[in-house]
Specification:
By secondary structure, this protein is α/β, with parallel strands linked by helices. It is built from 2 helices and 14 strands; from the N terminus they run αβαβββββββββββββ. The strands form 3 sheets. Strands 1-2-5-8-11-14 form a 6-stranded parallel β-sheet.
Length: 159
């Protein structure tokens, strides 16, 4: 199967499956509200790692436009990470940038650059490990060797 046929197949599956997939996502308990944690270069929270550490399950992390020099970011709880105007996550050629190890994670609207290069280990822009029901969309990737790695996953959507 050539690459164009593969892209068409992936898009077709995503088109038909996506409306049904998110119907069973867990919601918070009655009365519990989700929070929006804002990240910006001049905010009290100025890094994605810090935002993930303080966010509760189900929260949305809004990353404002800017350049964030971070790598080895671990998403270990259900979160939505949404970039505003494609903020740059610069791995500074140090290693993997984002690792998802939780179910129900959305990554949307980021510009990821400078993934570290290694010939002895895999450094991915986004690595998803043992995760179900995640969504990656509107992500721009540049200056990398491996863009996405998926290990033991179920129901993913890439746009």
């Amino acid at each position: 199967m050539n690459i164009n046929a593969l892209h068409i197949w992936i898009l077709a599956v995503a088109f038909f499956v996506t409306p049904y997939a998110f119907a069973n996502l867990p919601s918070r308990q009655a009365g519990a509200e989700t929070e929006i944690v804002t990240v910006c270069e001049t905010c009290a929270i100025s890094s994605l790692k810090e935002a993930i550490a303080i966010a509760a399950e189900g929260d949305t992390i809004l990353v404002k436009k800017g350049t964030y020099k971070e790598y080895n970011i671990v998403v270990d709880k259900p979160l939505t990470i949404k970039g505003e105007n494609f903020p740059i996550i610069d791995g500074e050629d140090q290693g993997e940038i984002i690792r998802v190890v939780a179910d129900h994670v959305t990554i949307d609207g980021l510009f990821i650059i400078n993934v570290g290069t290694s010939y002895t280990s895999d450094h991915a822009a986004i690595r998803v490990v043992r995760s179900e029901n995640f969504l990656i969309q509107n992500v721009v990737l540049e200056k990398l060797l491996i863009f996405l790695t998926f290990l033991e996953i179920l129901m993913c959507w890439l746009f």
